[in-house]
Amino acid sequence: MKNVKLNFDLDNPKKKPSRDGYGDGLNDAAAKNPNVVAIGADITASTRVDWFVKEHPDSFYDLGIAEQNQMAFAAGMSLMGKVPFVCNYGVFLAGRAWDQIRTTVCYNNLNVKLGGAHGGISVGPDGATHQALEEISIMRCLPNMKVIVPADSWETRKATRAVAELDGPYYVRFGREKVPEITDESTPFEVGKAYCVQEGTDVAIIACGAMVYHSMLAARELAKEGISAMVVNCHTIKPIDRESIVEAAKTTGAVVTAEEHQLMGGMGSAVSEVLSTEYPVPMQMVGVNDRFGQSGDPDELMNAYGLNAEEICKAAKRAIAMKR
Predict the structure, then answer these.
(1) pLDDT for res 150
(2) Number of domains within the chain
């Protein structure tokens, strides 16, 4: 597993919406490949697809609020040699169009890229109907579909650029609210590779999305109690980096996963599938525990649902206590 040093202020990090990285990444991809097209659903501004529209108006198609039609249209575009990026709120894109994603896109292994915006509970006031908390699980269970959950705006930009050059269906999940920018332009990023962003020997905290930052906060608090915590940024949920996960488990003997998603079927489930078959160790999961979201301030919601450093610390101690 590659060690990557992150250069940011843990106490006062710069913040930026991950969706900004998607808008920038789309323009980067189109500048390199004129076959890149974007397909919207009447919500281009909130997903930052409007940035693409300004730069490439002839490569954008707005199909209105018709998610199933979006997917069928994208499938046809891919068969014509285009690289279609379909963007919508993740809960609608993955939920309403799941049949078309499964049967039209994944079954035929078509070169369609999905941008799932408003990922997680931190969407805030939009409430349960708009907070995507289940879509990682329903996307990763599909054959041929790959799933990426970047940690911040820079990773979202890099992920968007990367999937434009890779064949087959990809789901890139990103949020709306500002989150700490823990990476920068020079930070390594490779689809399918997890990175150790902090070394440790007592417990490995494997996280994705905004929870990578909270995991680093937790590692600092644990260090005050003499607990050495490794932090792993597992931005690619599928194909998951099995080798790095096993290495983290062997090094520490205990694992905690942290994600802004339902516990069932998410990244934690993916990690447990690896460890239970290859290197079983005590494991705890931090995530949303079989609940719908609700309206509220993003930070208040994250704390109310236990998506913070405090809960990660508790989970780490439980996992360590289970060692034999």
Answers:
(1) 98
(2) 2
